[in-house]
Design a protein that fits this description.
The complex is a heterodimer of chains A (about 190) and B (about 80). Chain A has about 190 residues and is mostly helical. Chain A is built from nine helices and no strands. Chain B is elongated and about 50 Å long. Classes of the chains: A mainly alpha (about 190), B mainly alpha (about 80).
């Protein structure tokens, strides 16, 4: 299985420049390298393609504005994930306070499949995506986030632990339960 | 008889191939995160995000440089 994102990156070049910020071209590289991971996290965390699109835009805009706060101790991917997690949590909290729920319609979901795929593939991907979303929606938020982060092969358990504020051992323990819960819900969604 | 054997053989092969396919697909998504990885690979990032981002960042001043004291602090504490 391939990594979550194929990396066409010049990440090392970006890291070398990190202390003094990135040039627009390097920032574009940063977006190219990490936008799929951030968009996918937002999509499955929020459960709405339109909101995920807005969230991804906002996350990268925040990153652009706060570039000077990147300390170079974590990877760009981890730093961007941290911004994305906080942003998505804030959005969810705001929606719950206003009693708003996701109302993504079918047309929006259709646009989430890779456009180069055949119609059959698009249908399969869409159905699979809907089942995955249903299963994830049924999980506690903590398990959902853990699974989404662990699915990114670029992140170690230690990094997932830092992002979710727990030890790597705790991540492993909860991951086992999260996998089981996801599998049950995914089977039910068939 | 030979034909029957051939048929059996072909049927067995088909059955075996079917089993192999089932095993492969079961193996492919053995863990939830593998399924999510597959889903992520087949999820397109809307092109409109990059366009919006370009417009948003274009109207902002260049990214702030890291302050001199942070650079100094980091140099002393790698």
């Amino acid at each position: 299985m391939k990594a979550l994102v194929n990396e066409p990156v010049a990440e090392q070049a970006c890291l070398d420049q990190a202390p003094s910020g990135l040039t627009p071209s390097e920032f574009a590289d940063l977006y190219t390298s990490h936008s799929r991971a951030i968009y996918y996290l937002a999509l499955r965390f929020l459960g709405d393609p339109q909101k995920a699109e807005d969230a991804t835009h906002d996350v990268f805009l925040k990153a652009f504005r706060k570039m000077d706060q990147f300390r170079g101790e974590a990877s760009w991917r981890t730093w961007l994930y941290r911004i994305a997690i906080n942003h998505c949590r804030n959005l969810q909290q705001a929606w719950h306070e206003r009693h708003l729920f996701s109302n993504a319609d079918d047309a929006v979901w259709e646009s989430a499949a890779v456009p180069d795929d055949s119609p059959l593939r698009v249908l399969e991907t869409r159905e699979l995506g809907e089942r995955i979303q249903k299963a994830l929606d049924g999980l506690p938020a903590e398990y959902r986030l853990l699974l989404l982060l662990v699915a990114d092969e670029e992140l170690s358990y230690e990094q997932v632990g830092v992002l979710t504020e727990q030890s790597a051992d705790a991540v492993r323990g909860k991951l086992h339960r999260a996998r089981k819960a996801f599998t049950v819900l995914f089977r039910k969604s068939a | 008889m030979k034909r029957q054997t051939k048929f059996d053989s072909a049927e067995q092969q088909q059955h075996a191939a079917g089993q192999q396919t089932q095993q492969q697909s079961a193996l492919e998504f053995a863990a939830a995160e593998e399924l999510l990885r597959y889903d992520a690979e087949h999820t397109a990032v809307p092109g409109s995000i990059a366009q919006r981002l370009q417009e948003s960042t274009g109207s902002l001043p260049p990214p702030p440089a890291r302050s001199w004291w942070r650079r100094l602090f980091r140099r002393g504490n790698p």
